[in-house]
Amino acid sequence: MADKSRGPRPPKVEQPRDEAADIGVEARLAAGVLLNAALEGRGGLDAALSFREVAALPGPDRAFARAVAMAALRRLGEIDQILDRRLQKGPPLSVRTILRIALAQTLVLETPAFAAVSTAVKLAERDPKTRPYKNLVNAVLRGIEREGPGLTTAESNLPDWLAARWRATYGEPALTGLALAAREEPATDLSLKPGVDPASVADLLEGEVMPAGTVRTSRRGDLAGWPGFDDGSWWVQDAAAAVPARLLAPKAGEAIVDFCAAPGGKTLQLAAAGASVVALDRSATRLKRLEANLARTALEAEVVVTPAEEWDDPRGFDAVLLDAPCTATGTFRRNPEVLRATKPADVAKLADVQHRLLDAAAERVKPGGRLVYCVCSLEREEGETQMIAFLRRNPAFRTAPAVPAEVGAPDEALTPEGWLRILPSMWAEKGGLDGFFIARLDRVS
Ligand SMILES: C[S@@+](CC[C@H](N)C(=O)[O-])C[C@H]1O[C@@H](n2cnc3c(N)ncnc32)[C@H](O)[C@@H]1O
Fold this sequence. Notes:
Blueprint: H1 23-40, H2 44-48, H3 52-55, H4 59-74, H5 76-84, H6 93-109, H7 113-126, H8 134-147, H9 160-170, H10 172-183, E1 188-192, H11 198-204, E2 207-209, E3 215-217, E4 234-236, H12 243-248, E5 255-258, H13 265-272, E6 276-281, H14 284-297, E7 302-305, E8 317-323, H15 337-341, H16 344-363, E9 365-375, H17 384-393, E10 397-399, H18 404-407, E11 420-422, E12 436-443
Parallel strand pairs: 5-6, 5-8, 6-7, 8-9
Antiparallel strand pairs: 1-3, 1-4, 2-3, 9-12, 10-12, 11-12
Helix pairs in contact: 1-4, 1-6, 1-7, 4-6, 5-6, 6-7, 7-8, 9-10
The structure holds S-adenosylmethionine.
S-adenosylmethionine binds at residues 260-266, 280-283, 286, 307-309, 323, 325, 357.
């Protein structure tokens, strides 16, 4: 289970301070709570951050618990492969959770084995349900430490149904690339306000300048303490997520509507280009984050809480950006829980929503105007198939083929139709990207 090098690696995670006392045990308990919440459903991990076991921890221990849970999620298939070789009869989930959490520490986060094993045994001891398995926990973990984990396969970390889909869509070599990308924790990408020098931001944050001028940094911790945060010089946005607004090519003074805008990375790009932007979203909570981002960066947009397809407004626009709600399977590097939370039926359900939003977005585009459609999904039904059907229904629109180098996308992302299909395995040597489907359409009549 050795790491393959894939670009900048985040620095080591800070370990809980006091191994002798129960503090380390509490952090591991919280990691198990987070892991199981993420396995239970969409939004589970975020919701669990407010559970007592997690929220009561001091900040560094909470960060450690989250890092352990994320590592366990990213490598769950491999961890279970290792455990299944040593567990004759499946122990209860609570025992498996203790073992998963311990292996995420030793195999991924490089926590010293004595700390991971002793806290796992203490955890097992504390609960009457897991106490009978205390010796098993000790024996399994010590056995792995002594004899090594054995061979594992990156593809085991992907749910079978998604691996089968991606194999059928992208082929076996691409599937291997996706599986390798899914094991790694991504760095943080920053989009910069116009006029801010990427090289100096990269310098201050020990980062590197990516194509098209975003900055990638392996720094961790509270963003609010990073240089440039307070004065709004940058905002966090994956390098791939910055491509759709570039493809829309916003110009100063244009009227542009961002149909599904929150938390606002793309709205900020459009506003920073000098466009007059209306930002719609159905979620008032998420729009609060957009408003905070606008305030911090001193950029402006008209913000409207509404389902975009029901927006009662007569205006036509020079350009419309539709970053539609989707399964988000392309974001598995940042949100490994998405792989567990997404169910096969979600793909068709969300494709229906996208269909409705696309038709509503098209109605807002003035003749001669532009429409950019994007989703951070790897599923064809939400991307290519959606586009083919839209163009059939809407003969007034034509694809305006993308030029990847002009918009900061990998060349290999260009499809024969002129759309962009960005895979998380692309630019692996730079540390990868989120997966996106992006198409620009021009209204020709
Ligand atoms: C992929 S996110 C948008 C991310 C955003 N464009 C950015 O760059 O930060 C999708 C958004 O669509 C919103 N949404 C879902 N259904 C919607 C609808 N019918 N009308 C407007 N917004 C919707 C969700 O609340 C969510 O904020």
